Amino acid sequence: MKLTLKVWRQANATASGKMVTYPIDEVSPDMSFLEMMDVLNEQLIQKGEDPVAFDHDCREGICGMCSMFINGEAHGPDRLVTTCQLHMRKFKDGDTITIEPFRAKAFPVIKDLAVDRSAFDRIQQAGGFVSINTSGNTQDANAIPIDKHDADKAFDAATCIGCGACVATCKNASAMLFVSAKVSQYALLPQGKVEATDRVMNMVTQMDEEGFGNCTNTGACEVECPKGISLENIARMNREYLTASVKG
Questions:
Q1: Are 235 and 176 in contact (CB under 8 A)?
Q2: pTM greater than 0.85
């Protein structure tokens, strides 16, 4: 395959960026998108040019680092996959592919296609955990009965990998789907009930402080989420937040 890549290049967080066009050929349809980017970078290095910076780690759709905005879609044209799981067979010979970083005020660009998503880490630190008494009187978690439906919903919420596709897709750059998944993960389980009030209040407050926008209720976040996190989690978080606000 011969392709034309239009890639966002930005030297650092304070520099002005621009789209740069790169022709590339000998791309196999069986390559992953990141393997295609590796080929591009090898060509740039051979020419003595600066390779395109982008995040990646496991390349197995687990870590969520490989976040790219491809032809106007988070993670590209496929569904329920991360960028590293996107294959070039989804494109045609001669296609022009536009590749940008996830754009949001709370996700400042570090370089090229790599953005700083530490805002998600700070939201997690604000309440995305369960405090356990380890004084020797702990109860085995497997000994606590949990309704099968609640357990399934908690596991579904826990599949969120924090890639930020929901933020990049939302016209308001809202992080509601991410935060609601982390809230729901614990709100559905007895272990998470103890700190439920503080958790949702603290995480929502931190989300607002990071500069994320409000939910638009358009559902684009669920469509683009590589793990298919449901909008039901946002409704659950809203209920949890209302309950916590009443409790004061």
A1: no
A2: yes
Q: Where are the domains of the chain?
A: 3-111, 118-247
Return the CATH superfamily for domain 118-247. Answer: Alpha-helical ferredoxin (1.10.1060.10)
Exposed e or buried b per residue across 82-120, where buried means at least 16 C-beta atoms within 10 angstroms of its C-beta? bbbbbbbeebeeeeebebbbbebebbbbbbbbbbebebb
Instruction: Compute φ and ψ for 155, nearest 5 degrees.
Output: -65, -40
Q: Which CATH superfamily is domain 3-111 in?
A: Beta-grasp domain (3.10.20.30)
C-alpha angle 43/49/54, rounded to 5°? 75
Beta bridge partners of 53: none
Q: Alpha helices of 28-135 — where are they, by DSSP H? A: 33-46, 118-127
Chain segment 218-233, per-residue pLDDT in tens:
999 999 999 999 999 9
Contacts of residue 91, defined as CB under 8 A and 6 or more positions apart, other chains included, come to: 1, 3, 77, 97
Please provide residue 74's backbone torsions phi and psi, each rounded to the nearest 5 degrees.
Answer: -65, 125
Could you tell me where the DSSP H helices lie in the chain? 33-46, 118-127, 148-158, 165-169, 176-187, 196-209, 220-224, 232-247
